[in-house]
Amino acid sequence: MSTPWPRASAPGRTPTGLTQGGRTGAGIGASTLRPDGTLKATGEFAYSSDMWHEDMLWGCTLRSTLAHAEIVSIDTSEALAQPGVRAVLTYDDLPTEVKHYGLEIRDTPVLAHGKVRHHGEPVALVAADHPESARRAAAKIKVEYAELPVVTDEASATAEGAPLVHEDRHDRHAHHVPHPNILHRQPVIRGDADAAAARADVIISGEYVFGMQDQAFLGPESGLAVPAEDGGVDLYIATQWLHSDLRQIAPVLGLPEEKVRMTLSGVGGAFGGREDLSMQIHACLLAQRTGRPVKIVYNRFESFFGHVHRHPAKLWYEHGATRDGKLTHLRCRIVLDGGAYASASPAVVGNAASLAAGPYVVDDVDIEALALYTNNPPCGAMRGFGAVQACFAYEAQMDRLAAALDLDPVEFRQRNAMEQGTIMPTGQPVDAPAPVAELLRRVKALPLPPERQWLAAGAGADVRALPGGLSNTTHGEGVVRGVGYAVGIKNVGFSEGFDDYSTARVRMEVVGGEAVATVHTAMAEVGQGGVTVHAQIARTELGVRQVTIQPADTRVGSAGSTSASRQTYMTGGAVKNTCEAVRERVLDIGRRKFGTYHPAWATAELLLEDGKVVTDGGEVLGELADVLEGESVDLELEFRHRPTEAFDLRTGQGNGHVQYSFAAHRAVVEVDTELGLVKVVELAVAQDVGKALNPLSVIGQIQGGSTQGLGMAVMEEILVDPVTAKVRNPSFTDYLIPTILDTPTMPVDVLELADDAAPYGLRGVGEAPTLSSTPAVLAAIRDATGLELTRTPVRPEHLTGT
Amino acid sequence: MRVTCTVNGREQRADDVWEGESLLYVLRERMGLPGAKNACEQGECGSCTVRLDGVPVCACLVAAGQAEGRDVVTVEGLADFARQRDGSGEPGELAPVQRAFIDAGAIQCGFCTPGLLVAADELLERNDSPSDADIREALSGNLCRCTGYEKILDAVRLAAARGTARTTGQGA
After folding, report:
1. Residues spanned by CATH 3.90.1170.50 within chain A?
2. Where does the record place the 2Fe-2S ferredoxin-type domain (chain B) (predicted)?
3. Residues of B with CB below 8 A from A2's CB?
4. pLDDT tens digit string along A401-447?
5. Span B3-74 CATH architecture
6. What is the dihedral of CA A622, A625, A626, A632, to 10 degrees?
7. Does the beta-carbon distance from B13 to A696 stay under 8 Å?
8. CATH class (in words) of the domain with range B77-169
């Protein structure tokens, strides 16, 4: 590896625009196909790890082997001396005074300085001419550590004399938290929980434990940074939010934002794990230093250290209810482990606190949610974002309350279900449809899957339909069935007063005698199908057939994040909003050109349909191609959802959320009680989506989200050693996600009750199905086994007691 | 070392290959064929599934040297491969399984898609009307994180049904 590597002629690969024709009827509400489908099916779609540039170098990150340690010294001389190595960087090489970044709080060093705070923290960077050269050079960097004691949970983090994860906090939460190792704390207090508890006929309390889940997107963190002649850098990257990355990257590089030109490359899934930066700054720094393009691609092992995870949580819940099955009160305490750096923890705390009561009417609540700073891996955004952990606990409580009252668990939930007009624990009224009882009714009304399906094919047991599957562990002996229900509530969009907006640029012109539209946004397409609905919206609003979706980049204004179930609402809303303005301009042109020919130009309400200008009565006034001949309309506009408020720091009161999203699940499981193996036989779901802009994509989101919740119920957990705070299973061999054999049939019932405040009445759909899936599976396993099961994921030993 | 093999029907050569490089690395970084994907690089996820002398393998687990003189089919060559095998379809047309994945909504982020397509095509090659259990078994080595697999099952069923319809139409 000592010689430079000549390469076969490989093409440079960059993201391209996606042009899709189609009937004008392929507007909103149709299940149009993905415009990037063919590229993805042929292997041509350019993911961030596929980026290639002549003369490019490969970057590699050296990460800490300890969770908490002082860095005594770093010796890079041997690494630098290795042939093929072009640069080695440490904290001391950072070019400006800005050496930290972070989503909400800039507490994360670009490279470790003085100490490391978690296992796998980046310490040094190498650029070399082959990835193996870079890895070997990184291994030659000598870092001398002096180990420090770790804090790993609430007790150790808040113990007297506990080491502080961050000694000198000046962030906006520092002044109101009870301990410097508590990152943020949000109470929600409403009514009088103590007085209400006195009215309760039954009181149920319990402690619940939620493990650390990984997003496990398939496309590892990767990208290509290309130094530009103007001293700037072009970055091809997989992310959820280009402009948030940009805001964090540019100051560290010492560049104005306009000199960091970012283009979204193909994104292999995200699920929250790409909200934070990973290799973005590192690749740019190496490119600046070497003057050569630098590509960094994490492998799966590194990916487990390269992004934040879902917060593990300990939750204590107490509910009371009267004999007639009405909730009296809720007291709860949710402790989230934020790990070593803040990431999105403050917002996760806000969600957990404000949604802690679930989709139920509870007037008297005393809620507390907090996130810790510890030396565990940093945790932040993952699909469901704080609402997931709470849902696991409150749904377990609902089943226990129903049992104590001798009520059917669905009936009990329905008696307490919120509806439009319900006041949330935050004091915010639910002012759009909230069909919680109806969603439960729908999943319960579905026929149950037949018993003993492993005998369906005749002749003997088909082990593929049994717990343990092809491991051939049972032919039905010791297998029992259980059924469980759960329902959840998730907020849509960025909350708590955040100025959440998106931007869309839309151009309309005549090409080849036909009016066509071009849509340009910075929305990160991560697989959800935003590009599909943008084309649909443009067709609906502009009456065109052909729409081109330009690659997302930073030449257009921010689209906000592809998270919080918000992109169809927000960037879909932005595309709609800009299209409406474009349409008005087009009609102005039409009036100018043709207004004298027909009075309807001035008097009627005009629409664009099927390439024509028509009146609302259906009369054709002219061809769009004629109106636009020799002209074009090109507008870039911002779109905002209604404003929200911060939650009061003492009482949690405030109109903090934009919109809510609801899903309910029924899980049917079969459990091999002798071996503790679980087979989820069916996972039925009903969800209100307001308006399904693309039903095929909506169902795909619901099934995908449900499956991630299933994984959390029975297999997915990052194991962190409680003594060393080191990650024990950073691989797909040891961190399991559901395969097609683990995943059941998932009937989906889509309800469409419009939210009048949202574009087309739609509701964000991506996250809600991830909430209730996990507790429904847990409830089904409890039903099958009679066990209490207060932690997720459930492991075989929890079922066998061994 | 030098590695020479047939990839998608064409002889390909890579020079100065380090012995530790995988077939996946050589395909992606030296032969300009990034279709096979690098999701785990330890044989757990199936995203890099290619055919090696007809057998579906994880290209990340095959040392590049092992491919010397052998025949490799990647997702980039799947349409041609299927057309020659099936004796139907026009040049430039997608393979039936590719068309079915698009039509059924089986593609979201698409990172698992190349491996799944190669595996699903191989399943349909040996079993033209697989049961759901057969499909699940054949694709159990291919992880997908987006779809929950329901649409992938739909896609394979659709490809099988279209294949049966086609051969029935031909009087086969």
Report:
1. 50-148+220-267+274-305
2. 1-78
3. none
4. 999 999 999 999 999 999 999 999 999 999 999 999 999 999 999 99
5. Roll (3.10)
6. 120
7. no
8. mainly alpha
Q: Is the ipTM of this complex over 0.95?
A: yes
Chain A residue nearest residue B110, CA to CA: A40
What's the mean pLDDT in A676-687? 98
Q: Which one of A31, A36, A42 makes the best mutation probe of the B interface by having the most chain B beta carbons within 10 Å?
A: A42
Contact A525, A267 (CB under 8 A): yes
Domain spanning A501-640, CATH architecture: 2-Layer Sandwich (3.30)
Contacts of B148 in chain A (CB under 8 A): 700, 703-707, 743, 746
Of all residues in chain A, the one with the smallest CA distance to B13 is A8
* pLDDT reported for residue B165: 74
Do residue A47 and residue B37 have CB atoms under 8 angstroms apart? yes
Helices (H), ranges, A595-727: 600-603, 624-628, 695-714
Chain A nearest-CA distance from B78, in A, is 8
Look up residue A313 and give its amino acid: A
What is the mean pLDDT of the segment spanning B140-148?
Answer: 98
Residues of chain B in contact with residue A9, where contact means CB-CB under 8 angstroms, are 32
CATH 3.30.365.10 assigned to domain A432-492+658-800? The reply is yes
The string of pLDDT tens digits covering residues A289-307 is 999 999 999 999 999 999 9
User: What is the Cα–Cα distance from B150 to B134, expressed in whole angstroms?
Assistant: 14
Residue A23: which pLDDT band, with cuts at 50, 70 and 90?
low
Give chain B positions within 8 Å (CB) of A692: none
Mean predicted lDDT score pLDDT of chain A: 96
Strand arrangement, sheet containing A260-264: A85-89, A122-128, A57-63, A294-297, A222-227, A233-237, A260-264
Q: Report the pLDDT averaged over residues A456-473.
A: 89
Residue A524 has pLDDT above 90, yes or no: yes
Which amino acid belongs to residue A526?
V
**Interface test mutation site (partner B, options A9, A18, A33, A40, max chain B beta carbons within 10 A):** A40
Q: What residues does CATH 3.10.20.30 cover in chain B?
A: 3-74
Q: Which class is domain A50-148+220-267+274-305?
A: alpha beta
How is domain A154-214+309-387 classified at the architecture level of CATH? 2-Layer Sandwich (3.30)
Say how many CB pairs under 8 Å bridge A and B.
206
Concatenating the DSSP letter of every residue in chain B gives: --EEEEETTEEEEE-S--TT-BHHHIIIIISS-TTS--S-SSSSS-TTEEEETTEEEEGGGSBGGGGTT-EEE-GGGHHHHHHHHHT-S-TTPPPHHHHHHHHTT--SS-SSHHHHHHHHHHHHHH-SS--HHHHHHHTTT---SSSTTHHHHHHHHHHHHHHHHHHHHTT-
**Which residue type, as a one-letter code, is found at position A91?**
Y
Residue B7 and residue B31 in contact, taking contact as beta carbons nearer than 8 Å: yes
* A6 has a pLDDT exceeding 60: no
- Looking at the DSSP assignment, which residues form a beta bridge with residue A143? A74
Contact A703 B150 (CB under 8 A): yes
Cis peptide before A312 (omega within 30 of 0): no
